[in-house]
Amino acid sequence: MSGNNSALLGRPSERTQTVAAQPGxxxxxxxxxxxxxxxxxxxxxxxxxxxxxxxxxxxxxDLLEPAAAPGTRLRRFVVIDSDVDLLHGSRIRAYFDYHxxxxxxxxxxxxxxxxxxETAARIVEDLDAFGVDRRREPLIVIGGGVLMDIVGLASSLxxxxxxxxxxxxxxxxxxxxxxxxxxGVNFNGHKNRLGTxxxxxxxxxxxxxxxxxxxxxxxxxxxxxxxxxLIKDARLFDLLESHGPLLLDEKFQGETDGGxxxxxxxxxxxIQGMLEELQPNLWEAKLERSVDYGHTFSPTVEMSALPALLxxxxxxxxxxxxxxxxxxxxxxxxxDAQRVYDVMRSLELPAWDDLLDQPExxxxxxxxxxxxxxxxxRLPLPVGIGDVTFVNDLGxxxxxxxxxxxxxxxxxxxxxxxx
Length: 419
Description:
By secondary structure, the chain is of the alpha/beta class.
């Protein structure tokens, strides 16, 4: 094997004899009889997240990249959420027709209840029937976080990796699911138990889709924005505190001058903060991840509550619980803890769910997280507003005491009607 990015090493046996490799070859033999090899190689990873408001205007060509081979017609396999198709399918078809694209639209109902390997397999069957050039004809997925996760998994498996483009249509897709490298489906009652790391080559962000998203789903995405604010961006928290209800009302469409400015800054800071955390640790070699805040208990709570809780709502319940734990440890004071709960309420997000009254469910959730985090809790807790620390010593009684405290707070604050 040659090339500066690779090294092929033979393990020395009892009789060692060094055989020098050609310079830069990356092959080193240490004995006359080599009986083991270690291969080290590196593959650069590069992907783009691009603001593309008015994506399906005829004058935009983002979705036509890369171009077709000379003398051939551009082809695209497009997977679209069934709800998005009802709302936007006509203009999406008109766009591809205008640009003379040979395309097929695979329409898929997508929510957590069908986030399964079976759904991914059905998409692959349609993809295989259409056929794509595995380098020049990327898949396109248009939908929310659930569908992007499913199609990402299918893309990573089809021909051992086929490029894809994400067009998120929900807020949680714009600021969370659409900017990272994870794919996945639920399996055996567990959240995202099957998955890969396979970032889309390109993610295109068009806020206009949010105009047709239900109010509850806007709040769902704002929970993930609140996560970034609490762990690393006090300015973002201040924006949510002062403008959150307006952003919820306007669905990030900027119907007022203050709303437009706030919408742009909130989305930009949320994405920037997420990418700053992901980029140095994209493959999760380091398991202490601040973006895991709100994701210790929430996977189990969400799967147990289906379909009553959306993903962001379950994350918010988790953040409320860990805020209570942090307050009891003196990591966040009473004033800031109350500010956190008040913002959750102003964004119409739950700070409490009755599943927290099941100690066995919470302890099972923590055990599962410990397995996921390689034998340690690595529990992110807020330090004030805008910072985070990790602990490994959360005990059952401390957890139950925090639940009791949160229950009082949740009952006093009230909960959104849908919870």
